[in-house]
Amino acid sequence: MTHEFKKLIQAYLSASKIGLKSVIATVVALKGSSYRRPGVRMLLNSNGQMVGAVSGGCVEKEILKQSASVFTTGIPKMMTYDGRYKLGCEGLLYILIEPFDPGMEMMTSFEKTLKDKQDFEITSYFSKTVNSSESWGSTISFADKKDYTFNKKVQNKIITNGGLEQFIQKLEPCFKLIIIGAEHDAVQLTQFASLLGWEVIVVTSPSDPQNLGDFPGANKLLAISPESVDISELNKNSAVVLMTHSYVKDLKFLNILKDSSPIYLGLLGPAKRRERLLNEFIESNPSVREEFFDIIYGPTGLNIGAETPQEISLSICSEILSVIRKQVPKPLKDKVGKIHLNISL
Fold first, then answer.
1. Closest CA to 217 of 199, 204, 241, 242
2. What's the whole-model pTM score?
3. Domain residue limits at 184
4. Statement to judge: residues 64 and 163 lie in one domain
5. Tens digits of per-residue pLDDT, 157-195?
6. Tens digits of residue pLDDT in 188-229
7. Residue 72, CA atoms < 13 Å, CB-side half-sphere
8. 18-45: buried (b, 16+ CB within 10 Å) or exposed (e) per residue?
9. What is the CATH number of the domain that holds 213?
């Protein structure tokens, strides 16, 4: 959920520039089930604007109403929302609402953390009591080991008073998708991946005329040859989809990628093309490690009957997500037990 927190930070900065105050609401505990799990957040500005959501849209109006006192007093408060009678989700949400004004020092550390692809941690201190307390609030810590509060005005205040409950959330770097190819289907895949909050890098040929604006949602466009691809940052937090529509180019890129370790390497095209591509690849690289073939998915995507570029993009993103989450795709109606994993009641 790093990309969601990133959007809240951007919204806070925009609001503060025009003199608006902000508060942040965090689901810190859950009894039963709900649309979203603990750790989801939304930002509210003093002009009534809301950024993000903690549910499917049913809880947010109540949070806006409850946030009024936090804007007035500057004191964090707890609220509950019982979805068992209002949403049909059979869950009781515990939501911490607190002032959000972390200061520029925290912003600098946050930007550096994103750039360096590092984990960070947010800890919320609260009590499951519908009340207000200056002892409640959240801290955020980065690789520099320094803790910052969500509200810089209490930076020097000991927030970890005894008897408080803690919700600790570890947030990982944004997932990265490298799309090698610049045809129309690459544009569609870029858009779908960006909606998931993934950092998208598009690799094109040096002779291609495209620019970054041709790929809405992309973070970077690299017009480079296969030999110039940097594989050093391809790890379990990244995926690659090879879709140049050129057999020769795909083979060249595959030869470069053989020493990389993304969690997923998708090959666009039918099974016969994949077999031909891999056979020729093995002939050129007889000593390639066997583990490399474990990350290859070709044809890329799930079998959902996809026909259009948009549908194909959906199937590819769905398969990548299933690999990331280590799930075997199947209809939820056939799943036994909870929809979400690792829910603490």
1. 199
2. 0.83
3. 176-324
4. yes
5. 655 556 788 999 999 889 999 999 999 999 999 999 999
6. 999 999 999 999 999 999 988 889 999 999 999 999 999 999
7. 8
8. eeebbbbbbbbbbbebbbbbbbbbbbbb
9. 3.40.50.720
